[in-house]
Amino acid sequence: MKSTILKFCMFACLSSVMLLTSCKKDEVIDPRDQIVGTYTGKVNVLAKYSEEPSLGLDDETFEENVTIKIEKNASVKDEINITELDADGNTIYKANAVTDAINGVTFNIPSQTITESEVTYTISGYTNFTLGSSKYDGAYNSNTNILKFGYEGNVLMNGYKIPYLTTYSLTKQ
After folding, report:
1. Where are the alpha helices (DSSP H) in the chain?
2. 130-140: pLDDT as tens digits
3. Cβ distance 93 to 131 under 8 Å?
4. Chain segment 33-84, per-residue pLDDT in tens
5. For residues 150 and 124, is the Cβ–Cβ distance under 8 A?
6. Range(s) of the domain holding residue 123
7. What confidence score (pLDDT) does residue 75 get?
8. What is the rounded distance in angstroms from the CA atom of residue 170 to the CA atom of residue 98?
9. Distance between CA 92 and CA 81 in Å, rounded?
């Protein structure tokens, strides 16, 4: 009987020690870590010239190869910087609300103004993905390494405000 009680006490003590030493503080995982990297793929642009009738132009759709780089914004915890690397220079815009999702992350592109080569663009993300009741402008799938996002905007060109719609489909390198 004494040996049974002694064995039980030893088991209880060892279990307590193991339980207390195996508990560690939960690690905080930054969902942006999944999306950081360099991507290549295609960008599709629909320039809506017909919305400025005085130009007398039809809408134009074109596709280009593109390389982008995504980095964490060091000063905002749920924001990333998207840098489009091209011959005209690097265009940088921001995405925020980077959130963990099943097999990847989602994000939104807030309204922002960008000036590149003396041309001013105003952009704002548009919904490309819906998960449950939430809508997102972009998503990265960590299983396929595919990144898709889009934004709409206006470019001020020769005094005219031209609306356009842009969609990216990229693969992580």
Report:
1. 2-22, 32-35
2. 888 889 999 99
3. no
4. 999 999 999 999 999 999 988 888 999 999 999 999 999 999 999 999 999 9
5. no
6. 32-172
7. 93
8. 18
9. 7
The pLDDT tens digits of the residues spanning 77-120 come to: 999 999 998 766 678 899 999 999 988 999 999 999 988 777 88
CATH number of the domain enclosing 121 = 2.40.128
Number of domains in the chain: 1
Distances (CA, A) of 11 to 2, 80, 171: 14, 50, 53
**Tally of CA atoms within 13 A in the half-sphere of 27 that contains its CB:** 3
Amino acid making up residue 17 = V
Q: Is the pLDDT of residue 17 over 70?
A: no
> What φ, ψ does residue 142 adopt, rounded to 5°?
-70, -20
Residues 6+ apart with CB under 8 A from 167: 43, 44, 128, 148, 149, 150
Radius of gyration over every alpha carbon of the chain, rounded to an integer in angstroms: 25
Q: Is residue 9 part of a domain?
A: no
CA 119 to each of CA 82, 127, 162: distance values in angstroms, whole numbers, following the listed order: 19, 25, 12
